[in-house]
Amino acid sequence: MISLAVARSPEEARSLARGIARRMRHRCGKPLREAELEARFGHLCLIAREGECLLESDRIAASKHLVPGHRNFLEEIVEAANPTELGEKLQGLEGFYAGAYASRDFLILFRDHVGHMPLAYLMGRGGVSAGLERKSLGSGAEQLHPGSMLVVEPGGIRIEKWYSLKPVDAGEAWKLLAERLSRAADAYLPGEFRLAFSGGLDSSLLAHLALGLGRRVKAVTVGVEGCLDLRWASEAAEILGLDIEIRVIGDDELLEAVELVGERIPRRSLMDLAIAAIHYFSARSGAVLVSGQGSDELFGGYWRYEEALMRGGLEEASRRIRRDIEKIHERTLERDEIAVALAGGELLAPYLARPIYELAIAISPELKVRRLADRVVRKWVLRRAAEELGLPEKLLERPKKAAQYSSGILKMLRKLLKEPARASPGGRMG
Questions:
Q1: Going by C-beta distance under 8 Å and a sequence separation of 6 or more, which residues neighbour residue 104?
Q2: Considering only Cβ atoms within 10 Å of each terminal Cβ, which end of the chain, N or C, has fewer?
């Protein structure tokens, strides 16, 4: 939990920061620490959870982060003497993070390459405020763009890009992808976690990799009685030897969940409410929820990409994939992270790890939405990588259906809210 305010007086900064923290009280699962700093650009107050902040006499830092191989992430951050040095450090730090770093001369808000962790800011007449959720800041708050820094100095405020895409040679793409998936699973997957599990390719591959590494996985599948996900997930769990928890959702608890998440997520379409509710039901207080989010955008999983290929060719499919990757932080990640946080959990989407993300962008769209003799295969390259990694054959070619449909949650929600069915873009949970 990060709550921060810069104002004209210590009292104003303290009041603003505490108000933001109160509006994010569902994130306060650990003791909070509060720090103040009198800087050249104003008075700063920062509130963060124990273990997610570093407080010194002349500088403070806080971050929600998962950075494999860097246990002393905040210590590395505060070694930067200026914004340029911090940008260079971030370029070399693989992981997911959103944070703030302040000295008497500057304040820097920063966010990882893809926007896995949310971070919002609001410009005011007397300064700036920041928090993990836009709704905690009020009207006019904006997300900091992924791979960017917002820099506050005595001379003004600016936003600059710190992240630059690393070029990758994607020859024999599926073999290289298999290697990077294996390494990312080892680096990112904790010793014990919950897995949002539909029995589809993405979640089955994550389960397969985790079990091979000796991790303790509790697969959780959410849906209405008799839905497709419950049948597929049970069958896939049996094939994999996976411990599974089935959550059958009733009318009243769905309405309660939708009311709760609907107050926090940035968009309230039925699709967004349905997917947020699924994440909320899948999470558990204090647990990491691993999700397959990001795989469809990176590897061409949505039906709309196949449709674009058939109508406008590879160039049109490629354009849609690029657009969705660029928007993933605001279309899916912000919504899903908030829903999991409301349940007291932590979201982790390992397909978005930087080595996989950068390779996926380098892979030709022709290997993602692949036209064969009599059909189009979506996520072709990921299926071949999964084959390299030994995923059971029966799970390799399982067709994709978005979670809000295959779980039956969207249909139930339409009925409860008496909304007509309409076309909506894909959303998923692997």
A1: 37, 38, 39, 40, 58, 59
A2: N
Give 168-175's long-range contacts (Cβ < 8 A, gap of 24+): 168/358, 168/359, 168/361, 168/362, 169/362, 170/359, 170/362, 170/363, 170/364, 173/359, 173/362, 173/363, 173/364, 173/367, 173/381, 174/367, 174/381, 174/382, 174/384, 174/385, 174/387, 174/388, 175/385, 175/388
Q: Is 429's pLDDT higher than 50? A: no
Residue with the two structure tokens 């900064």: 13
Residue 203, pLDDT > 60, answer yes
C-alpha–C-alpha distance, residues 347 and 115, integer Å: 12
- Report which of 411, 394, 395 is spatially closest to residue 403, judged by C-alpha positions: 411
CA dihedral 68, 70, 71, 74 (to 10 degrees): -120
For helices 201-212 and 380-388, what crossing angle results, to 10°? 20
Q: Tell me if 227 sits within 8 A of 403, measured CB to CB.
A: no
pLDDT tens digit string along 124-158? Answer: 877 899 999 999 999 999 999 999 999 999 989 99
Contact 219, 233 (CB under 8 A): yes
- Tell me phi and psi for residue 43, to 5 degrees: -95, 130
Please calculate the CA angle 128-71-86 and round it to the nearest 5 degrees: 40
Statement: residue 423 has pLDDT above 50: no
Q: Is the pTM of this model over 0.85?
A: yes
Task: Tell me the average pLDDT of the chain.
Answer: 91
Between CA 101 and CA 88 the distance in angstroms is: 14
Q: Is the pLDDT of residue 400 over 70?
A: no
pLDDT tens-digit map of 240-283: 999 999 999 999 999 999 999 999 998 889 999 999 999 999 99
CA 114 → CA 14, 256, 280, 322, 349, distances in Å? Answer: 31, 31, 22, 13, 11
CA angle (246, 250, 252) in 5-degree steps: 140
Joined tokens for residue 37: 């700093």
Collect all residues with Cβ–Cβ distance below 8 Å to 41 and sequence separation of at least 6. 6, 106, 107, 127, 152, 153, 154
HSE on the CB side for 13, CA within 13 Å? 23
